[in-house]
Amino acid sequence: METQPIIAIKNLWKSFGKNKVLRGINLTVDKGESLVILGRSGSGKSVTIECLVGLLEADKGKLEVFGTDITKLDYKALNRIRLRIGFLFQGGALYDSMSVRENLAFTLKHHTAHLSEIEIEKQILEALDSVGLQEAIDKMPSELSGGMVKRIGLARTLIIKPEIILYDEPTAGLDTITAKEISELILSVQKKYKTTSLIITHDINCAKMTGNRIMIIKDGVIHAQGSYDELMNSPDDWVRSFFV
């Protein structure tokens, strides 16, 4: 018996004024899968996942998450779906005025009411341990390197124990070594927490390391999909250009 995809996007369209960014995106992600979406800057990669969590309203199409079309949900029902999804933003998106501990506690309290202070501290330490940064618990965001900010951002995502994690350019702005560490961390998180991952990137090394499957967006549609090796050896010159 076939299981239902945990994410299913059907004929997704999104325009900004006369700029048609998405022109009928179709994709599915199975439970436990790690799907990478590649594309040039401005191709609509980030717009796709912003529509997926209701940060942007789709012009047309179905966006099914956990078998529910989120385009038909009211705000309260959409939030119930969002509670099961972690979103790692491109910049880490930490609150500058809060310490690492306070950033994680704020997120946890927002998602899970009535936790004791002991339980909150325990979950903060567990999340920081998962990203190898327990020692940064009392630091302020301004004291962290770019790689550390990404790790803390991921810890803040993990603390709500999401079933799906959406990564928006997780290695952007990082040096090669740190970018590789973040890609390895994505893999270890998926293994430890058995999450489903949707990774938006233009970093081909990140795609190679993290993706079970890769899709490439061009002109607002999925232009090609397959494994890293299949796409690297594609007869399509444009597809192969990503792997040079």
Automatic annotation (TrEMBL):
Pfam families (UniProt xref): ABC_tran
GO molecular function, one term: ATP hydrolysis activity
Coiled coil: none
Thylakoid listed as a keyword: no
Residue spans crossing the bilayer: none
Alphabetical UniProt keywords: ATP-binding, Nucleotide-binding, Transport
ABC transporter domain boundaries: 7-244
Cross-referenced PANTHER family: INTERMEMBRANE PHOSPHOLIPID TRANSPORT SYSTEM ATP-BINDING PROTEIN MLAF (PTHR43023:SF6), PROTEIN TRIGALACTOSYLDIACYLGLYCEROL 3, CHLOROPLASTIC (PTHR43023)
Protein name: Phospholipid/cholesterol/gamma-HCH transport system ATP-binding protein
Biological source species: Flavobacterium noncentrifugens
